[in-house]
Design goal:
Layout (H helix, E strand, L loop, with lengths): L2 H8 L1 H17 L5 H13 L4 H18 L4 H16 L13 E6 L6 H14 L4 E5 L7 H12 L2 E3 L7 H14 L4 E5 L8 H17 L5 E8 L5 H12 L4 E5 L9 H8 L4 E5 L7 E3 L2 H9 L2
Parallel strand pairs: 1-4, 1-5, 2-3, 2-4, 5-6, 6-7
Antiparallel strand pairs: 7-8
Helix pairs in contact: 1-12, 2-3, 3-4, 4-5, 5-12, 6-7, 8-9
Amino acid sequence: MGFFEKLKQGLSKTKNAFNDRVNEVMANFRKVDEDLMEALEEALILSDVGVETSSKIIENLRNRVKLQKIEDADKVKEALVDEIAKVLTKNDTSINLETKPSIIMMVGVNGAGKTTSIGKIAHSLKAEGKKVMVVAADTFRAAAIEQLEVWAQRAEVEFFRKNEGSDPASVVFDGIKKAKEENYDVVIVDTAGRLHTKKNLMDELGKIQRIVDRELENASKEILLVLDGTTGQNMISQAKQFSEVTNITGLVLTKIDGTAKGGAVIGICSEMNIPIKYIGVGEKIDDLQKFDATDFAKALFEE
């Protein structure tokens, strides 16, 4: 099965929930009027798109209906789908790994799927012919290093670790040194699964970032926030909180296949202005792929 088919299958719960709500609205309204617009806005909010984004999409839809003099309900649905696709495709989703070495820092709360995402991204970069090293800077959580090592072995990439309890910033410093000496293309750094309320952990993240900026001053850097797709609107609040303490360059969305709350992806694209770089629709090592906004929009609405 190709990734687009997996994506389509993975988004089926979200798509069904979304389409059911929109179709129900369409069935209840014969006229294209303000009542229809309000009902569609409510349907978007109930589909986890978010209040702010739903309001913006419907405002654009209103203007379009007036401008194009749309009077047919089916045409309204087509226009709505098109407005949502515009939101999804507005950000550049490419990964910036121009320099040697380039660095990817992975951040996010425990349980979002950060460790597995690192393994899957490492596997995907190795398949592109890159020499990859994974650095274990989550040094305090029991078994975090061992877990990550298993994924690095599966991906068949280099794994750099120090003892449990080591200072994370010093692990990153030594890992970068080795990567420079041995000519690695990409260094992927795992950081502790921070809860945004814990200031000391956020400070530690800042310390790691300063080491990276100093040791790889002109390198390509991606700071990817891993978000659990099943948490719906909570993804947006997490993204906001992490953006306050570090310069997030992209998002990795996991477990989208297990939820009907994928509508939150639309809200994130609109409100956060942070591109989605990877999306996961399964547990296998190749089930996390680079995000293609056009494919996502197509999979979300295609019958």
